[in-house]
């Protein structure tokens, strides 16, 4: 098993499948009266978040606590970081405190990789800039597998702001590793340079892709990362790349709708679709806890 989880590319098919299989067992704990295992008792997990987060931070906190680890939540706001402390000095502080694992979200792409060179504990990338978010890809794969019965041979469309999406990058890497076909759908302005090197097809025509996919993964338009206009208007974007009931009617009957959250309802996805039986959005949040329990278990408890 790997030492750190910095990229979805760190996982081969066997290790990814092992994490997903273990997550199934972790998910079964939700039905127990006592939702705790003693596996990581005495271990310390630090959630080091330089960017705002709701789902990911709480999910990692719940996962660590259910494995009986001690959890320290570190927010850049109100800490020495706001006084100018560098990532390296923060890392050395965590090292001195004996952190066994550091879950890090940072606005700079590559920050978790640097952190991993400064601390002895395990480092888990919870999102770095516009680069990657490997545990989101794992929970998405878990959701696909549980809803569709398998991933190999499936066709997944990832739609929207691919350019700024760390979720898209990690999903392309992991889904390819697990044998799925991926098509990226976006306006030309929101397709990254060098996308031809990704293991994915690219389409600018959402409607043409719909009849052949097993899952549609919608992405939020990340306006906070945009310094200029990438499309004419929100209305025009929604008309061409939004998922509404008409487009859903063109999907195969078994196809599911996914979204990593947070959603902009009415722009990339309509409320009717987000709340429909095809939607796995709430499931993805629940699955995230089980998947992150599995990641922590394998990095800290299951294997040395």
From TrEMBL:
<feature type="binding site">
    <location>
        <position position="56"/>
    </location>
    <ligand>
        <name>carbamoyl phosphate</name>
    </ligand>
</feature>
<dbReference type="InterPro" id="IPR036901">
    <property type="entry name" value="Asp/Orn_carbamoylTrfase_sf"/>
</dbReference>
<feature type="binding site">
    <location>
        <position position="136"/>
    </location>
    <ligand>
        <name>carbamoyl phosphate</name>
    </ligand>
</feature>
<dbReference type="GO" id="GO:0016597">
    <property type="term" value="F:amino acid binding"/>
</dbReference>
<dbReference type="Pfam" id="PF02729">
    <property type="entry name" value="OTCace_N"/>
</dbReference>
<dbReference type="GO" id="GO:0044205">
    <property type="term" value="P:'de novo' UMP biosynthetic process"/>
</dbReference>
<feature type="binding site">
    <location>
        <position position="220"/>
    </location>
    <ligand>
        <name>L-aspartate</name>
    </ligand>
</feature>
<feature type="binding site">
    <location>
        <position position="105"/>
    </location>
    <ligand>
        <name>carbamoyl phosphate</name>
    </ligand>
</feature>
<feature type="binding site">
    <location>
        <position position="166"/>
    </location>
    <ligand>
        <name>L-aspartate</name>
    </ligand>
</feature>
<feature type="binding site">
    <location>
        <position position="83"/>
    </location>
    <ligand>
        <name>L-aspartate</name>
    </ligand>
</feature>
<feature type="binding site">
    <location>
        <position position="261"/>
    </location>
    <ligand>
        <name>carbamoyl phosphate</name>
    </ligand>
</feature>
<dbReference type="GO" id="GO:0006520">
    <property type="term" value="P:amino acid metabolic process"/>
</dbReference>
<feature type="domain" description="Aspartate/ornithine carbamoyltransferase carbamoyl-P binding">
    <location>
        <begin position="4"/>
        <end position="145"/>
    </location>
</feature>
<comment type="similarity">
    <text>Belongs to the aspartate/ornithine carbamoyltransferase superfamily. ATCase family.</text>
</comment>
<feature type="binding site">
    <location>
        <position position="262"/>
    </location>
    <ligand>
        <name>carbamoyl phosphate</name>
    </ligand>
</feature>
<comment type="function">
    <text>Catalyzes the condensation of carbamoyl phosphate and aspartate to form carbamoyl aspartate and inorganic phosphate, the committed step in the de novo pyrimidine nucleotide biosynthesis pathway.</text>
</comment>
<dbReference type="InterPro" id="IPR006132">
    <property type="entry name" value="Asp/Orn_carbamoyltranf_P-bd"/>
</dbReference>
<feature type="binding site">
    <location>
        <position position="55"/>
    </location>
    <ligand>
        <name>carbamoyl phosphate</name>
    </ligand>
</feature>
<dbReference type="InterPro" id="IPR006130">
    <property type="entry name" value="Asp/Orn_carbamoylTrfase"/>
</dbReference>
<dbReference type="GO" id="GO:0005829">
    <property type="term" value="C:cytosol"/>
</dbReference>
<protein>
    <recommendedName>
        <fullName>Aspartate carbamoyltransferase</fullName>
        <ecNumber>2.1.3.2</ecNumber>
    </recommendedName>
</protein>
<dbReference type="InterPro" id="IPR002082">
    <property type="entry name" value="Asp_carbamoyltransf"/>
</dbReference>
<keyword id="KW-0808">Transferase</keyword>
<dbReference type="GO" id="GO:0006207">
    <property type="term" value="P:'de novo' pyrimidine nucleobase biosynthetic process"/>
</dbReference>
<comment type="pathway">
    <text>Pyrimidine metabolism; UMP biosynthesis via de novo pathway; (S)-dihydroorotate from bicarbonate: step 2/3.</text>
</comment>
<dbReference type="Pfam" id="PF00185">
    <property type="entry name" value="OTCace"/>
</dbReference>
<feature type="domain" description="Aspartate/ornithine carbamoyltransferase Asp/Orn-binding">
    <location>
        <begin position="153"/>
        <end position="299"/>
    </location>
</feature>
<dbReference type="InterPro" id="IPR006131">
    <property type="entry name" value="Asp_carbamoyltransf_Asp/Orn-bd"/>
</dbReference>
<keyword id="KW-0665">Pyrimidine biosynthesis</keyword>
<comment type="subunit">
    <text>Heterododecamer (2C3:3R2) of six catalytic PyrB chains organized as two trimers (C3), and six regulatory PyrI chains organized as three dimers (R2).</text>
</comment>
<feature type="binding site">
    <location>
        <position position="133"/>
    </location>
    <ligand>
        <name>carbamoyl phosphate</name>
    </ligand>
</feature>
<dbReference type="GO" id="GO:0004070">
    <property type="term" value="F:aspartate carbamoyltransferase activity"/>
</dbReference>
């Amino acid at each position: 098993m790997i030492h750190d989880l910095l990229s979805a590319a760190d996982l081969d098919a066997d290790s990814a499948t092992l994490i997903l299989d273990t997550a199934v067992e972790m998910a079964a704990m939700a039905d127990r009266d006592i939702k705790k295992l003693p596996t990581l008792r005495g271990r310390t997990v630090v959630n080091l978040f330089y960017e705002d987060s709701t789902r990911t931070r709480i999910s990692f906190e719940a996962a660590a606590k259910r494995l009986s680890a001690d959890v320290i939540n570190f927010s850049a706001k109100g800490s020495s970081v706001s006084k100018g402390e560098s990532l390296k000095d923060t890392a050395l502080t965590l090292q001195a405190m004996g952190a066994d694992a550091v879950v890090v979200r940072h606005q700079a792409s590559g920050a978790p990789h640097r952190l991993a060179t400064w601390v002895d504990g395990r480092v888990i990338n919870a999102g770095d800039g516009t680069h990657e978010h490997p545990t989101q890809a794992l929970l998405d794969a878990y959701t696909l597998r549980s809803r569709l019965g398998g991933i190999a041979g499936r066709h997944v469309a990832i739609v929207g702001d691919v350019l700024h999406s760390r979720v898209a990058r990690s999903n392309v890497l992991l889904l390819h590793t697990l044998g799925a076909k991926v098509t990226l759908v976006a306006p030309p302005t929101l397709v990254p340079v060098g996308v031809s090197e990704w293991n994915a097809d690219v389409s600018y025509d959402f409607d043409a892709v719909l009849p052949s996919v097993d899952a549609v993964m919608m992405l939020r338009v990340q306006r906070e990362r945009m310094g200029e206009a990438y499309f004419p208007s929100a209305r025009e974007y929604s008309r061409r790349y939004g998922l509404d009931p008409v487009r859903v009617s063109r999907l195969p009957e078994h196809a599911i709708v996914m979204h990593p959250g947070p959603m902009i309802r009415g722009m990339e996805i309509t409320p009717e679709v987000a709340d429909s039986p095809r939607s796995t959005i709430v499931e993805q949040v629940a699955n995230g806890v089980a998947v992150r329990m599995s990641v922590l278990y394998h990095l800290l408890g299951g294997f040395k």
